[in-house]
Design a protein that fits this description.
The protein has helices at residues 11-21, 41-51, 55-63, 67-85, 104-108, and strands at residues 2-5, 30-34, 93-97, 115-117. By secondary structure, it is of the alpha/beta class.
Amino acid sequence: MICPSLPQRDYDLFAAKMCNAIRAERCEHVWAEVVNVRGDSMTRTISALRAGGFDCEADALNETRNRATWEDYARRTFLAHANIYCAHPGGKLRFLQYVTSDTRAWWKSRENLGTICL
């Protein structure tokens, strides 16, 4: 499982590196998702990133508090993974995504590529 995926500068490069890191060719399925926000988890994650010296990553995650930025981050993460795993027979990707009434149609239309709408 590739989770949680933080916002990236290069989503395609990140997805390729993760594919190699988990040795996807040996996996029946590849599960992935972006940061799962519950309670004050976003604030705690940003604080932990800063405490670890990952200010750029903390800033990028903080920017996703904007709903449009969040959706862009989730879609770019998904599309980078889908680009890799759609070539695998049987569809390896299982991308977990919380949807809203505004975003449901986009995600539902990509279930054939591996989205699982929550």
